[in-house]
Write a sequence for this structure.
């Protein structure tokens, strides 16, 4: 896909601030006593740099050069290994903890998703924890996005008007068009995404096929068990013994 507009990237942390989700992942890093952490789809690195600690190695991987350029300018960025690419570019394993935050899992379509999970398993050792979140398809979040009116806000780049078009282009696949109009120049930045909305059952099967065992599915960042109705599903899985896929065949 085309890379992000640098102005949109500059606004990313304001739109997606540090909060309960980051607290959850930091707590998980402490609980697992992780010494080597992978943040796949690290974006601007807002969470990534806070995972750095004494005797802890952190690797951030993202396919967006613009996002990584921003991440590398952060305080403490020099203590993170930044890699431009997707799961096929992962280096520095095996890891003790691997995370995909900001609903990154939904940005990985079809067979790429299966490949990503297998490559994550290859970067793990038995017992390594993989954690990520994904929206619950049954709550149909995209219908709310599509129904929202445009909004205008002040930014360092002047007034910015934003709106969305969203529809389910095929079962479990949502086409999202994001529009950002910089009012001073009348320039409209358009971002086209296809988001995968997978059920808890499907994700659990995919994890098992890749060599992971699901140990919990939470419905919120306070670790309330997922009951099928919450808008978010937070997965914790462990890499099973043996090589990728062995657990699926005995």
């Amino acid at each position: 896909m085309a890379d992000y507009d640098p102005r949109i990237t500059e606004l990313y942390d304001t739109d997606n601030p540090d909060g309960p989700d980051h607290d959850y992942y930091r707590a998980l890093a402490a609980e697992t006593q992780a010494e080597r952490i992978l943040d796949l789809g690290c974006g601007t690195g807002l969470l990534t740099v806070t995972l750095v600690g004494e005797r802890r190695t952190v690797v951030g991987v993202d396919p967006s050069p613009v996002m990584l350029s921003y991440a590398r300018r952060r305080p403490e960025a020099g203590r993170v290994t930044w890699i431009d690419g997707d799961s096929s570019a992962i280096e520095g394993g095996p890891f003790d903890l691997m995370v995909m935050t900001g609903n990154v899992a939904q940005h990985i379509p079809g067979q790429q998703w299966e490949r990503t999970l297998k490559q994550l398993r290859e970067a793990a050792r038995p017992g390594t924890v993989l954690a990520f979140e994904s929206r619950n398809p049954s709550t149909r979040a995209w219908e709310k996005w599509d129904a929202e009116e445009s909004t205008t806000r002040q930014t360092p780049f002047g007034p910015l008007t934003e709106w969305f078009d969203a529809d389910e282009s095929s079962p479990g696949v949502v086409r999202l068009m994001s529009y950002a109009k910089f009012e001073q120049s009348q320039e409209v930045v358009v971002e086209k995404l296809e988001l995968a909305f997978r059920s808890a059952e499907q994700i659990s099967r995919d994890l098992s096929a890749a060599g992971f065992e699901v140990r919990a599915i939470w419905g919120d960042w306070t670790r309330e068990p997922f009951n099928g109705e919450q808008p978010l599903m937070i997965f914790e899985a462990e890499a099973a013994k043996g090589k990728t896929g062995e657990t699926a065949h005995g």
Notes: The two ends are 38 Å apart (CA to CA). Residues 244-250 have pLDDT under 50 and may be disordered. DSSP finds seven helices and eleven strands in the chain. The first helix runs from residue 6 to 15.
